[in-house]
Design brief:
By secondary structure, the protein is of the alpha+beta class. Helices cover about 30% and strands about 25% of the residues. The protein has 11 helices and 13 strands. A 7-stranded mixed β-sheet has the order 8-10-7-11-9-12-13, sandwiched between helices. The two termini are about 20 Å apart. The structure holds magnesium ion (MG). Magnesium ion binds next to loops.
């Protein structure tokens, strides 16, 4: 980082953040600082979750893939997913829009409508924003949410904990592959819906946190193995994932057959990945029906470092290292 001519492509997203964050000083009232799904802050006697995320045309989606309303909805919902990962209740958001001059005002109304509707669906309201000219369309939303009494971050996983995920994985990544190939076959519709309109697990996240069952949690935005690696890094542990146990949707199985690569590495599922200490597994079983979504055991936390993927015969298939990085091209 000290060589001034190096670019973000040289340094990478992870490299840049690991150089930036240790020097960042947080003030009083910061209960949880950077590096988690949300910051936790104290204002007066209330605690809030605080998070921000952006969708950028050409980076996160091609404009032809989604309606303006869907772009607005998704921009809010990806933030709500970070709140779900910490068991909070979305309350207030502000919106920063960057829009090319040639963008149709009718489309911008539809996009804004999508943000407002998604916020309302999640119990939140849009309380302000900013509009500026930009080369590409982007929507950035900062969201404030009620914090639960108990704070769960990515740091609490311990050896012996079980690893669970909600819902199914890989649908959104499969949709991106199909959309990229120009495909719009009828059987792809459920996958494309999951890419365009994610359903953050707010209800399940709250129950998992408030019940005290989970030791660590994250939302799966960059792929199961990568996001599990983040939990492991933060917690100072390793993990083992059983490839055959990763939950796949019927639509995913119909189109991709037995290939689990997109379910393991694909992003944008917005499911929850959590770790559950052995002593809480029975309680999770009793709570399962109240979550409103399936939850599946996919592996366990180990004492070493790194995430190992194991096959049905128990043999290691591969060790997972780096995954998606915004500034590094996939090798
Ligand atoms: Mg997240």
């Amino acid at each position: 980082l000290t060589v001034p001519t190096r670019t973000l492509a040289d340094v990478g997203e992870v490299g840049f953040l690991s150089a930036l964050l240790p020097g960042l000083r947080t003030g009083p009232g910061t209960l949880v600082g950077p590096g988690q799904d949300c910051a936790v802050i104290r204002c007066g006697n209330r605690r809030w979750l605080f998070t921000v995320d952006a969708l950028v045309a050409g980076v996160h989606f091609k404009p032809a893939w989604m309606s303006p309303r869907q772009i607005g909805r998704k921009s809010f919902l990806v933030n709500a997913s970070d709140v779900a990962a910490m068991g909070g209740r979305p309350r207030f958001c502000v919106v920063s829009l960057g829009v090319p001059s040639a963008y149709r005002s009718r489309d911008l109304f539809a996009l804004q409508d999508g943000i407002v509707a998604a916020a309302r669906d999640c119990g939140a309201s849009v309380v302000g924003g900013n509009l500026s000219r930009a080369a590409e369309l982007f929507v950035s939303i900062a969201l404030l949410a009620d914090a639960p009494k108990r704070i769960v971050t990515r740091r609490g996983a311990r050896p012996g904990d079980r690893v669970y995920v909600t819902g199914t994985l890989g649908d959104a990544a499969a949709a991106v592959r199909l959309l990229g190939a120009g495909g719009s076959e009828r059987r792809a519709v459920p996958l494309i819906r999951r890419f365009c309109e994610p359903a953050p697990r707010l209800h399940a996240g709250r129950i998992l946190v408030e019940s005290g069952i989970v030791s660590a949690m994250i939302d799966v935005s960059d792929g199961l193995l990568q996001d599990l690696a983040r939990v492991c890094d933060e917690s100072g542990v390793g993990a083992r994932v059983h490839a055959g146990q990763v939950p796949l949707s019927p639509a995913y199985r119909r189109i991709l057959g037995g290939s689990d690569a997109l379910a393991l590495h694909g992003g944008e599922d917005y499911e929850l990945l959590c770790t559950v200490p052995e002593r809480n597994v029975k309680r999770l079983e009793r709570t399962r029906a109240r979550l409103g979504c399936p939850i599946t055991l996919v592996g366990d936390i180990t004492a070493g470092r790194g995430v190992r993927l194991v096959g049905n015969d128990g043999r290691t298939l591969r060790l997972h290292s780096a995954g998606f990085d915004h500034f590094r091209s996939p090798s």
